[in-house]
Amino acid sequence: MKKSGPVAIIGAGISGLSCAQVLHAAGVDVRLYESGSTVGGRCATRLWQGHLVDFGVQYFTAQTTDFKRELLTRLRQFRPIISPIMDGAGAIVASPGGPRFYVLQGNNYLAHVLSRGLDIRFNTRVETLSFLSSGINCLGETYRAVISSMPGPQTARLFGLARSPADYDPCITALLEYSGANLGLSRECYARTGGGSQHNLIASFCENHKVGRIVGHKTVFVAQASPAFSREYEGVPPETYLPLLARKNEALWHIPTGLLTASSAHRWIFGRPQEGPRHRVDLPAGAFYCGDSRTDSTVENVWLDGSNVAREVLNYLASLST
Predict the structure, then answer these.
(1) Which of 29, 274, 285, 297 lies most in the core, judged by the most C-beta atoms within 10 Å?
(2) Coil, strand or helix: which one is 4?
(3) Residue 60, beta-bridge partner list
(4) What is the C-alpha to C-alpha distance for residues 118 and 24, in angstroms, rounded to an integer?
(5) Residue 5 in contact with residue 292, Cβ under 8 Å?
(6) CA-CA-CA-CA torsion sign (237, 243, 244, 246)
(7) pLDDT surpasses 50 at 299
(8) Nearest to 263 by CA among 139, 165, 174, 170
(9) How far is CA 95 from CA 67, 99, 100, in A?
(10) Per-residue model confidence (pLDDT) at position 3
C-alpha cells in the first residue's frame, strides 16, 4: 500500500470542510473524499429556471464568536432575512439562534469558501475501510486517522458500527415557480410552517425574500415535505407527488390555483436527524466523526463540531508520537 498523509475526511459538507481547515492550518496533511461533484452536502444551491435557489439549507444563524469571526473574515457577503417565519395560525416563529442570514451568491458559496486550499477528491465514493496495525487503509492509501462527516447511517456502515450515531428522516424538497410576484401571503413572511410532521408539508420558504435571487415576474418556493410523505413516495416518480405538494403549498400561502409554471423535486435520503438524543457508539482506534450525527443540524453547529473534532484528532495524532 502507498504511504499517505495522516488524515482522511470522508464527505465535503460543512463539518468536514471546517474540520479540514483546522487540521490544514495546524500543518496536518489532510485529504477529503467526496462522492459528489461539488462541496457543501446539504448546504446546496442550484440555478433553476434562471433563479438561484437554496434547496438544502435555507438560512443560518450566528451566535458564537468563532463562527461570527469566520463569516466576517472568510465570507462577508451575507445578508439578513428581515421577514419572519410564521406558523399555520399566523403567529411568528421565534429564532432561538438569533437573526437569520443568507449568502448573496447562494448558501452553498459558504462551502466553496471553506474548500479553498484543500485537497479534495471529487466523485470518489469510500464505502469500506481496513483498520490495520500500520494504519487505516482507504482506497489503497494508509492514514493515521479517518473522519466521517457523512450522515449517521453512512458513518455506521463506513466504520462497521453496530448502530448509527443518529437516526435520520428523509425529506422530499419541491421547487415551485409561480407566475406573478408577491403572491398570496408571500409579501408578509419569508416562510410558513405546515403544522407538524403529520402534515404533507413541514415548511415552505419563499426565495423572493433573498435579494437578487429570483428573475422575472415570478414567485419561487422551496417546500419541504414531511418524513411520512417522503417515505410514502420513496421511489415514486416526481410527477406523481409534485402536484400534491403544489396544492398544499398553494393552500398554505393562499395562492390561487392555475399559476404554477414550473416544478422540480430533490429527495434527501438523510434529510435531517430525528429529534432526541444521539446514540453512543464505540469507534475503532483512529476513527472519528463530525456533523449533525453529533450535534444540532444547523450550519453554525456543524461548523463548530467540525472544528472541535479537528482538535480531538490533533490530540490523537500527538498521542501517537509520544
Answers:
(1) 297
(2) coil
(3) 101
(4) 8
(5) no
(6) positive
(7) yes
(8) 174
(9) 17, 7, 8
(10) 37
